[in-house]
Structure formats: C-alpha cells, structure tokens
Specification:
Elements lengths: L2 H4 L6 H14 L16 H13 L3 H14 L9 E3 L2 E4 L2 E3 H18 L2 H19 L11 E3 L4 E2 L4 H20 L5 H16 L15 H9 L5 H10 L3
Antiparallel strand pairs: 1-2, 3-4, 4-5
Helix pairs in contact: 2-3, 3-4, 3-5, 4-5, 5-6, 5-7, 6-7, 7-8, 7-9
C-alpha cells in the first residue's frame, strides 16, 4: 500500500470497515479478542486486534481490550500464553515478546486517539510488563523468550521475538517521556538488545534448530528498526530469493 493509504484519515475506510466490524463482533464481554469464535486469546494477537479497533475509530472497544490486559496482569507484570472464556488456557509459560507488546499497542492507541488519560491509566500496566521483560535480559543483550510456569527462565532467545521487544521498548520509552516519567534504563536496554540483534547471532537459537528458515527472522529486524534504514535494503536483498 502507498503512503496515501497509510496516512491518517486518508485510508479507504469502506474497505477496512468489514474487518473492523468483525473485530467488534469477536470481542468478548470482558474485552478479550480471541483468534476466532470459540478460540483462545493470546496477549500478542489480542493487542494486534486492539490496534485494528483503534485504526477503525472504535476507541471504546480498543480501550476495553487494553483494560482486559490490565485486569488480567499477573503480579510480576506478565500474562500467561493464552486465555479462553475468562480462564487461563495455557499456563505452561509467559512469553516475553507477548508481555512487552502491550507498550506497542498502548502507544499506538494514544497516537491515534490522543487520549492522555488513557495513557496515564495504562502506565502502571506498561511499566510492570516492561520490568518483567527486562528481568530476562542477559549481559549480552538478548532477552529470554519465555519464563516457565514455575518462574524459571527458559534460556534461549528468538530473533523475531526480540525484534518485537525492540519495537515495544521504543514505544515504552515514548510513553514514559509523554507522561513525564522517563526511563533511561529502558533506553539502554533497548540499545543493548539492538546490538545483540545486529552483531551477536550466536546468542539466538542456541538450544534448538535455527529459526532463520522462517521469513519473520528475515524481515522483523527491519520492520522493528533494529536494522537501521541505511542497511535494511541490503539485509533484505540477501535473502530476497
């Protein structure tokens, strides 16, 4: 799509409206948005759906989606991997990129709605989530992909997951500045994570087969900004075929 369609107020609303209405119908009474009718909801895809509601102008529904996250956040700042009908559907782990993504969604909604009160309301939730995630960062910069049910780190890292976290940390830093409570430590953590993504491939996929065969490992570092624009084209061309 061209820049025209992605500009605020200029995208084809009639084209997107059926999708927005589908999301409104799919949203549960508690605010959660499952994958499909009768399916589970996970924190990452739930936020993606909430972002669609924001784009479609369904601000109340989007804010209810984020309040579902706030209301179901665990004491350590995380969420379980999946929920269904108001209950935990997967309590085997808490995935760090899932947890961090609330910051991306909250910042996205603020940029569209300009609702400062919403940003203030969600700040404790975002802060707690980011602190949980950064507790899983190694001295090398990468971030463990998950924490087990008993709270033990699952010590390996994913390029795609860490790229998503890299973008979420940018959004979290922006939120902290916007509400007048800057977190320079988060900025430093993001810088270290970016260095790991760009220069330390050995820190990823250490205990399983490389995930590099998946396209997300190829384009997510560009999409998230971990690979800067000056090098992004060359990075994509390497595996374009």
């Amino acid at each position: 799509m061209s820049g025209l369609f992605l500009s605020k107020g200029l995208f084809p609303q009639d084209f997107f409206r059926p999708t927005v209405e589908f999301l409104v119908r799919a949203q549960q009474a508690d605010g959660s948005i499952p994958w499909f009718d009768g399916g589970h909801a996970d924190p990452w895809d739930h936020v993606e759906s909430a972002m669609g509601l924001s784009i479609g102008g369904e601000f109340e529904a989007a804010e209810n989606a984020y309040r579902w996250l706030k209301n179901n956040q665990l004491e350590d700042g995380s969420w379980w991997a999946a929920y269904r009908d108001g209950e935990v559907d997967n309590h085997e782990r808490r995935e760090t990129n899932f947890v961090a993504y609330v910051a991306t969604g909250v910042w996205h909604h603020f940029l569209i709605s300009e609702n400062q009160a919403f940003l203030q309301e969600m700040w404790p939730c975002v802060q707690s989530a980011i602190e949980f995630v950064l507790a899983q960062q190694s001295p090398h910069g990468e971030i463990n992909w998950a924490v087990s049910a008993d709270g033990e780190p699952m010590c390996d890292a994913l390029v795609t997951g860490c790229s998503s976290i890299y973008k979420s940390l940018e959004c979290a830093v922006n939120i902290s500045v916007q509400i007048g409570s800057p977190r320079p430590v988060w900025r430093d953590a993001r810088q270290a994570l970016g260095e790991a993504l760009r220069k330390k491939p050995e820190r990823f996929d250490r205990t399983w087969e490389s995930k590099s065969r998946y396209s997300m490992d190829w384009f997510y570092p560009v999409l998230s900004g971990a690979i800067p624009p000056a090098k992004a084209g060359a990075h994509l061309q390497k595996r374009w075929g």
